[in-house]
Amino acid sequence: MMAHSYCIDSLIGPLCLIADDDSLREIRFAPLGTALDPTPPTSLLAEAARQLTDYFRGARRGFDLPLDPVGTPFQQRVWAELRAIPYGVTTTYSAIARRLGDALAVRAVGRANATNPLALVVPCHRVIGTGGKLTGFAGGLATKEWLLRHEARRTVPNGLFAQPSETGPASAPLPGA
Fold it and tell me: Within a 10 A sphere around the Cβ of 159, how many other Cβ atoms?
């Protein structure tokens, strides 16, 4: 299958989208100054760019794109858990490990999170450390903080998914803010 790429500008900087003929494979954070493409080479990349633009405008909370990230079976399970984290909600590495049935797999969950090739669409930015600490993110911690603020971050102390009514105002400050 042929790989196609399309670099776009976003509120967090340039993003390069990579797809084959059938599915989105990667979203990479690109350095400032990356040449932006005037026209998407495929309809899939055009749709991915449109959905990302809608997300940054606040008009989209989830993504409806065919995805095919390359990873181990364990990574695929972690990434499926990441996709289940609702918009505006955070969870912890340990909560994901427990949901996968192995409370001791916290570091393995962290490694799978760090190798997520589809940042934003597979929302690894919604995973934080125990106690609300912001931890690594391919786009940098400032970008992770921006994304969480953009989504009006909501969490509860035990790291489980929170409903807005459980967490108070959506404008709650991030840890250390």
Answer: 21
Two tokens, residue 129? 């450390």
Report which of 105, 117, 103, 136 is spatially closest to residue 23, judged by C-alpha positions: 117
Q: Provide the 8-state DSSP code for 93.
A: H
pLDDT 10s digits, 130-161: 888 898 899 999 999 999 999 974 444 444 44
pLDDT at site 176? 37
* Region for 121 from its dihedrals, namely left if φ exceeds 0, alpha if ψ lies in -120 to 50, beta otherwise: alpha
With beta carbons less than 8 A apart as the criterion, state whether 15 and 29 touch: yes
Q: Is pLDDT above 70 for 172?
A: no
The average confidence (pLDDT) of the chain is: 86
Active site residues per annotation: 124
Topology given in CATH for the domain delimited by 73-167: Arc Repressor Mutant, subunit A (1.10.10)
CA separation, residue 34 to residues 29, 31, 91, 158, 165 (Å): 10, 6, 32, 40, 42
Q: Which amino acid is at 167?
A: T
The mean pLDDT of 101-121, rounded to a whole number, is 96
Domain boundaries, the chain: 4-57, 73-167
C-alpha pair distances (Å), 77 with each of 71, 82, 171: 10, 9, 31
For the entire predicted model, the pTM comes to 0.83
- Count of residues making up the chain: 177
